[in-house]
Design goal:
Elements lengths: L7 H7 L4 H29 L1 H21 L3 H28 L3 H29 L6 H20 L3 H11 L12 H10 L3 H19 L1 H8 L4 H30 L1 H21 L3 H29 L4 H27 L5 H16 L18
Length: about 375
């Protein structure tokens, strides 16, 4: 994602695409994730994780190669749709696999590492992509496709077979009954969304909406309101990547043990609210930078904390749970930029005012989260 981010403006200008063309291209990626994630999650519950991961990474290679080969808008749209389907196969399946082969006590650490890997990619990607794009704006796509192919090979060789993974899952969850094969996808999805975990899924949607609403217009907002240069913006994004990586690798698991997932989620929504409000009233660049890092760090901790709580709340159907997680994230990713862009046309402060309202509501909603029904949950008792 971040590898190709620096070249997208050049593609737009060189091929004479409109901003709407680029927006539709990104929406197709999120829409494919939205539709594919829960269905593929259920498939991975039944057919196995490894095969879904391998196919998902192969689709990633196809998507990046196709984008590099063409200058046609239609073909690029097809490429981005395939890319969204690939993400729908890889991301929730990876989280489901992590939940399968870990105990509830280990899970926060493992999911924190997965989030850290994502943050590490966000740190390295823009720099590498910018260097590669000096020869051609298509080079980063070829490089991404090559990395994807190497990932397929490594995964196929190094990841145990689905049969072995199933044995590992059984050994870590001996009390879990065999998964039903005749369950109905839509009934199971509705049961999860309307049950005790429904509030967690709502918070997933809100956090995705809030983060994308915040970051999609961030560069425009700070440039117009606080007169940030591109160097200032690059500094903020780099610092954010480093801080997020340190938090997720070194501190996330400790914070979960100390506070529990529910308190951590609650505090993160509060700090996201506080940081966004601070940006709106700040008058100095250093204050805006600190407030921005506070917001981004809070969002970077909210998602793995909610994901960890979701995996603990459901002892089976991890693929479906993580698929719904990804689908609701995609809904936020579709709605957030559209709404923020529309509000920005009226007033630069309106989008962040909406984010503030949603964060404050979410903060109070966290008091309604139910305890995860597990026997090995390290979370302390709390209101």
């Amino acid at each position: 994602m971040s590898l190709i981010f620096p070249v997208m403006p050049f593609i737009k200008n060189e091929l004479h695409f409109s901003a709407l063309d680029m927006g539709i291209m990104n929406s197709l990626f999120a829409f494919a994730q939205l539709i594919g994630s829960p269905i593929i999650g259920r498939i991975s519950d039944k057919s196995g994780r490894k095969v879904v991961l391998v196919i998902g990474l192969l689709l990633f290679v196809v998507a990046e190669s196709l984008f590099a080969l063409t200058n046609s808008l239609i073909v690029m749209d097809i490429s981005r749709t395939i890319g969204g389907l690939s993400a729908a196969m890889v991301v929730p399946t990876s989280n489901a696999l992590a939940a399968d082969i870990t105990t509830p006590g280990q899970r926060a650490k493992v999911i924190g590492w997965l989030s850290a890997a994502f943050s590490g990619g966000l740190i390295l990607g823009p720099g590498i992509g910018g260097v590669l794009a000096r020869s051609s704006y298509k080079t980063p796509f070829w490089f991404a496709a090559t990395l994807g192919l190497l990932s397929v090979i490594c995964l196929a060789i190094m990841l145990p077979s689905d049969k072995k993974l199933k044995q590992l899952r059984t050994s870590t969850k001996p009390a879990i009954a065999k998964m039903k094969s005749d369950t109905n996808f839509w009934q199971d999805s509705w049961k999860l969304l309307s049950g005790p975990m429904g509030l967690l899924f709502i918070l997933i949607l809100v956090s995705a909406f809030g983060l994308v609403s915040f970051e999609s217009i961030y560069s425009l907002y700070v440039n117009e309101v606080h007169h940030f240069t591109m160097a200032n913006i690059a500094l903020v994004l780099t610092l954010n990547g480093i801080i997020s990586l340190l938090f997720q690798i070194l501190l996330f698991n400790r914070m979960v043990i100390l506070l529990g997932e529910k308190r951590l989620i609650r505090y993160c929504f509060f700090f996201a609210f506080l940081g966004t409000a601070w940006i709106m009233v700040a008058h100095q660049k250093w204050a805006v930078i600190i407030a921005t890092l506070l917001v981004f760090t809070a969002f970077d901790l909210i998602r793995p904390a909610i994901t960890t709580l979701l995996t603990k709340a459901s002892l089976t159907d991890q693929g479906l749970v993580n698929g719904l997680n990804m689908s609701l994230t995609s809904v936020g990713n579709i709605i957030g930029p559209i709404l923020s862009g529309a509000l920005l046309d009226y007033n630069y402060h309106y989008p962040y005012f909406v984010v503030i309202v949603f964060m404050l509501i979410s903060f109070f909603l966290t008091y309604k989260i139910h305890r995860a029904p597990t026997n090995n949950n390290q979370e302390p008792t709390e209101n």
